[in-house]
Amino acid sequence: MDVAIVLKILIAAVAAGTPFVYAALGELVAEKSGVLNLGVEGMMLVGAITGFIAMAKTGSLLLAVASGMTAGMLMAAIFGVLTLTLMANQVASGLALTIFGIGLSAFLGLNYTSIALPGIPELPIPLLSDIPVLGKLFFSYDILVYGSLALFLLVSWFLYKTRAGLILRGIGETPKSAHALGYNVIRIRYLAVLFGGAMAGLGGVYLSVAYTPVWVEGMVAGRGWVSLALVVFATWRPLRVLFGAYLFGAITIAQFHVQGLGIDIPSQLLSMLPYLATILVLVVISRDLTAIRLNSPASLGITYHPENQ
Amino acid sequence: MIAKKHVFSIAILAACVLGLVLSASAAEKLKVGFVYISPIGDAGWTYQHNLGRLALEKNLGDKVETKYIEKVPEGPEAERVIRNLAKSGYDLIFTTSFGYMNPTLKVAKMFPRKYFEHCTGYKTAKNVGTYMCRYYQGRYLAGIIAGKMTKSNTLGYVAAFPIPEVIRGINAYTLGARSVNPAIKVKVIWVNSWFDPGKEREASEALIAQGADVITHHTDSTAPVLTAEEKGVYAIAYHSDMSKYGPKAQLTAVTHNYGKFYTKVAQSVLDHTWKPEAVWSGIKEGSIKLTPINPVVPKGVVALVEKTTKGIADGTFKPFHGPIKNQNGKLIVAAGKSLTDKDLLGMNYYVEGVQGSIPK
Q: What is the pLDDT of residues B256-289, one digit of tens each?
């Protein structure tokens, strides 16, 4: 394998990893506030079809992004009402949200199957993208890829450098204490869940508008689940989410290159790898209790009843 | 008491008469049902079958009435849909996906007086015929064009599942390309799906990155053609004309056309001459066609393709004609001989020039 092919695999891996970056960072914020939303797959699908419809009708990427995010947020709002207002079980509600999203997106997309969009152009950054090798690797993507990097910076800064981020993390650890200090736990969790929904929707828009600009039923194809696994894989750290997303992207891309080069590894084995890696990480961190205590939100998945405190 | 009995038997009699009248009027118009695996959309496998249905309606006018049911998953759901069609008065039913084979046979047994035609299957019965197309003939022709247009001598092939049908296409394409350019290598990537634009795109990108400058596919979506257009390489489309997705990229498309066949079968049912047959039709019967060739292809190449097309149509030329070597250079078809239909139907090896190995 020469440098040119490795470079092409890496570039393709960044594109393939971008939907994971969006969805997993969104979910990370929600989980940091203590809410486990398993509906990522469903929110991504609904975001994907809404963004696709907006793009097909208006041709405006901005509208596609806005409507995809709004749709993801509406889905997340349903989840919020169920789990935060009605205090329903988070795991069950999340699964229901995914199943609902699969059906809803298929229904909305009835008249849009097999329509192809032109896709969105790559935006090479002037000068920087002319640097040999590195220029192509770092500075020649479409705007949604740059957007995902901006999101990473934003989320890292918000969680670890701002007071609001500290409060959010505090709620994820001990909602009771946060409540005692006068913070509205339910309201802040709502905001985190809505943010997670918007980002999942945006990840869906990237898939249906930029990555493969067609609408196909179920086109998210398990990426929502991979994103959920990714948050655990990254032990709830944004930088590791970014790294993991590109790693998972690279594995997806590599399975095709391996075949094209005639190397005899079953492609099924490679497509299994992201999940194996996640299980491995889960095993490793569950053996090291401090790592869990340090990073995973202590109240994750536990319903909080303010009036009982 | 007696009066009551009378009323009862009159009612039965009336019901019988009504039933007779109904079935008589149904016999006047042949009701033809179609079962599709995917939505019709605007290109692809089901789209082509639906074009065939529309041609049937046009050709036979008010002698037939057609109905289709799309997006029917293979398996138990298919059986239910086919049975419902048969039950609701459809006399001739076309089931257009491989996985409908057993459901079709099962329902056919329950409705011995209805006619069934199953696409791509290998089991016939008293009232079940099968039909498919010799796609490999079109593939061979497309191979000639690709072999003449490539500069890197590397062709890319996005393939769905390693079954004889797909392998036959890869081999015919390779033979066609190597007939005009013996230096050709064909790279194959299996995506293990008939329809997954994401994977098809990733596979196409990988092939292009590895030097392929003509991409073709044996999958259902338009993604390979879209990707080729985007990356500035050529593509050979499959199933339908996809030139609107890749006006510059698409050199031609290998299409299958069922209008004539559907008309013939429906007519034979109307004439009471229908017989269960296993039909395998190709260029000669007009089932396989290339769409108009992109003007970038030189005139000489187009003439060669036309000549070969004529040869295939009148039987003087066979794509799988010896000498043919397999991937390891072993002679498998001697000069002067060609593969029989039986050999073709069970094909499970690559010919010389294809890279990689067939997944087990």
A: 999 999 999 999 999 999 999 999 999 999 999 9
Dihedral of alpha carbons A137, A142, A148, A153, sign: positive
Q: Is beta strand B115-119 parallel, antiparallel or unpaired with respect to B92-95?
A: parallel
Q: How many CB atoms lie within 10 A of CB B317?
A: 16
Interatomic CA distance for residues A181 and B266, integer angstroms = 79
Contacts of A119 in chain B (CB under 8 A): 226, 230
How does strand B288-290 pair with strand B250-256? antiparallel
Name the residue ranges covered by the structural domains of chain B.
Answer: 29-133+258-281, 135-255+320-345
Is it true that B29-133+258-281 and B135-255+320-345 share their CATH fold? yes
Interface test with B, best of A206, A212, A219 (most B CBs within 10 A): A212
The pLDDT of residue A294 is above 80: no
> What average pLDDT does this structure show over B105-120?
95
Q: Which of A2, A6, A140, A214 to mutate to test the interface with B (most CBs of B within 10 A)?
A: A214
The mean pLDDT of chain A is: 89
The CA distances from residue B44 to A112, A114, A215, B48, B237, in Å, are 15, 9, 15, 6, 10
Burial class (CB in 10 A: 0-12, 13-18, 19+), B358: middle
φ/ψ of B137, rounded to 5, equals -65, -45
Residue B266 to residue B56: CA distance in whole angstroms: 8
**What is the per-residue pLDDT for A207?**
93
Q: Which of A261-270, B172-181, B253-262 has the lowest mean pLDDT?
A: A261-270
B198/A266 CB distance under 8 A: no
Q: Does the domain at residues A3-308 carry the CATH identifier 1.10.260? A: no
Pick A221's closest partner by Cβ from B42, B196, B207.
B196
Q: Specify the pTM.
A: 0.81
Convert the pLDDT of each residue in A56-115 to its tens digit.
999 999 999 999 999 999 999 999 999 999 999 999 999 999 999 999 999 999 888 767
Percentage of chain A exceeding pLDDT 90: 57
Output the CATH code of domain B135-255+320-345.
3.40.50.2300
Q: Do B357 and A268 touch (CB under 8 A)?
A: no
| Range A126-153 average pLDDT | 84
Residue of B nearest to A220 (CA): B198
Could you give the percent of chain B with pLDDT greater than 70? 92
8 Å CB contact of A213 and B195: no
Architecture category of domain B29-133+258-281 in CATH:
3-Layer(aba) Sandwich (3.40)
Å from B40 to nearest chain A CA?
Answer: 9
Q: Could you give the 3-state DSSP secondary structure of residue B191?
A: coil
User: CA B41, CA B51: separation in Å to the nearest integer?
Assistant: 11
Flag whether the ipTM exceeds 0.85.
Answer: no
